[in-house]
Design brief:
single chain
Length: 126
C-alpha cells in the first residue's frame, strides 16, 4: 500500500522531508543503522527523504560492514596475541573518520535543499 494515500501516515511537509533527508546523512556518523531505519520507515512519506536516505544507506553500508568485520578480526587476533589486532582496529577507525567526514558534507548540502550524490557509492539498494 502506498503510504502517500494512507491517512494514518500522512505525507511529509517539504520542511519535514528535508529534515528527515538531513538526518539520514547525519546518521552516517553512527554507521548504516540510522539511514536504514529512515529508509525503511520514512521513505514512503517523502520523495526527498526516499532519495537521500537510499543514497546515505548505499554509502554507509559497506564501510559499516567492513569496520565491524575489522574490529571482530582484531578482537580475535588480540585474544591470540595482545596487540596483534591493533592495525586492523586503526583501519576501522580511519573508515569511521572518512564515513563521518563524508556524511557531514552530505548533510550540509541536503540541509541547503540540494540532493547529494557520494562520489564513491555502490548504489546497490534501489
Amino acid at each position: 500500500m502506498n503510504n502517500f494515500t494512507n491517512p494514518a501516515k500522512p505525507p511529509l511537509s517539504p520542511a519535514e522531508d528535508k529534515q528527515w533527508a538531513f538526518l539520514a546523512h547525519c546518521g552516517g556518523i553512527l554507521g548504516c543503522i540510522p539511514s536504514a531505519l529512515i529508509y525503511k520507515f520514512m521513505a514512503a512519506r517523502g520523495p526527498f527523504t526516499a532519495q537521500e536516505s537510499r543514497e546515505a544507506l548505499n554509502f554507509t553500508l559497506p564501510p559499516t560492514i567492513a569496520a565491524v568485520a575489522l574490529n571482530i578480526i582484531a578482537l580475535i587476533l588480540n585474544l591470540i596475541d595482545p596487540g596483534a589486532g591493533t592495525p586492523l582496529s586503526m583501519l576501522a577507525l580511519l573508515l569511521w573518520v572518512g564515513l563521518t567526514v563524508w556524511s557531514v558534507i552530505a548533510a550540509i548540502q541536503v540541509n541547503k535543499g540540494n540532493p547529494y550524490r557520494y562520489a564513491w557509492n555502490l548504489r546497490r539498494i534501489k
